[in-house]
Amino acid sequence: MPNTTYIEYNFKVDPLQPTSDILIAELGEAGFESFIEETDGVLAYIQKSDWSDMILEGVEILKNTNFQVSYQFKEIEQENWNATWESNFKPIQVADTCVVRAPFHEKPDVPFDIIIEPKMSFGTGHHETTHMMLQHILAHDFKGKSVLDMGCGTGVLAILTAMKGAKMIDAIDIDNWCYQNSLENIERNKCEYIKVYEGDASLLADRKYDVIIANINRNILLADIPVYAKALNKNGLLFLSGFYAEDIEIISEKCLAVALKFEKKLEKNNWVAVKYVF
Asked: Of 12, 102, 253, 276, which residue is the least packed, with the fewest Cβ within 10 Å?
């Protein structure tokens, strides 16, 4: 079988966020199938058979003067694409106890070894918000808990709660790629207690959880916080991320209005992950 030829786009962006997240979402809609987030932008890959010189016509962020995006592209053979992907996707270590890695990485000697094949889904641990949410999970007891991972992406957060002893876990994402990728990663990590659903917060009617984890974005969180509060058991915990330090005030106001009390925050490169108690 002949090697597949890929087109690699090397995007340089400013500011890094939210530009990278928006760019990846729009490139996914255009047909790109794999991404690597870098410190100054994004590498994006599409099979040459799916590519045309008009492929970026519908990528609106490239026309938005509020964001600076430049790019170059080139052809690479399948074998070189695999090598590029593997050399760029490094394992992520969180504290001394958790590693998030791809299947081709060596097995580490840690209690929580999470294997993720990210495809087009968000949530490898490389992004600050995912990394901090993993820190929050590591710091808490999940034994026997019921958990919701809202906007699950790769499923990595749900997988760690399962490894920490949660027994009833729902993982929900509105994006079909994320839904499919979460199913694959959950099977890969042998997490029998996780159920994956494709949809949004409307799926939460009549459901109750001890812990809700939502790593999405500010506007979706602001709209859905009242729904999360209704879905939390008494003394339940809510972990939120996907927004900046300057957004904590408005997020906390929304939480306080539904009896959720701020307890703790983590911060990394102006991104935050915040804990609330019901």
From this structure: 253
Residue type, 96: D
Burial grade of 124 (CB within 10 A; 0-12, 13-18, 19 or more): buried
Class of domain 5-87: alpha beta
DSSP states of 171-235 as a string?
Answer: EEESSHHHHHHHHHHHHHTT-TTEEEEES-GGGGTT--EEEEEEES-HHHHHHHHHHHHHHEEEE
| Residue 41, φ and ψ in degrees, nearest 5 | 165, -145
Q: Which distant-in-sequence residues (6+ apart) come within 8 Å of 7 by Cβ?
A: 45, 46, 47, 48, 51, 73, 74, 75, 76
List the chain domain ranges: 5-87, 90-277
Q: What are the tens digits of pLDDT across the range 200-234?
A: 999 999 999 999 999 988 889 999 999 999 999 99
For residue 173, the one-letter residue type is D
Query: Which CATH architecture group holds 90-277?
Result: 3-Layer(aba) Sandwich (3.40)
pLDDT in tens, 83-128: 666 666 789 999 999 999 988 889 999 999 999 986 655 677 778 8
